[in-house]
Amino acid sequence: MKLDLNKLPIYSGSEASLLWGKDRFYVKTIMQQHPERFPKGTIRKIGKTWIVTQEGMEEVTGQKLEGIQMVNKLQELVGKTFTPHELDEQAVRITGLPAFFDRNGWETAVEQESFAYEKGDIAYNVVFDFVKKADEDKSILKVADVEQL
Q: Can you give the residue ranges of the Helix-turn-helix domain (predicted)?
C-alpha cells in the first residue's frame, strides 16, 4: 500500500497559519508559547519546518477548515447585488446548507438585514444592504459582509 501525502490533511506551519486566516508565524508562535494546545501527534518539526495536521489546527483555533473555506467562498459575494432569491441560491450552492427561504420568511430577512445559514456546528450570516427595498421578488440586495458564527 502506497502512502499519498497529497491526500493527507497535513500542512506546513506557515501554510496552515495562512489557510486559517492567521499570521504566517501563528503555528510557530503557538508552539513557542503554548505547545500544550496542540493535541499529541498533531504537530511535528521536520528540519526547520513545523508540520501540522488539520485536526491540530482545528483544535488550536476552534475553527473547522470546512467552515473557513465556505466563508472565503461566501466573501466573494461581498459587493455584488442580487434579488433575495438569487442571493439565497448562491449561498446554498456555496455552503450546501439549507436555504434561508425554506426556513424563514422575507419579513425575517428585512428585519435582520441578513440571511442566516446553519447546519450542525457551521453557521453564517450573509449581511446585506438594500439597494432597492420592495417586496420579496422586487428588492435588490448588496452583500455587505459575511460573518461566521
A: 12-64
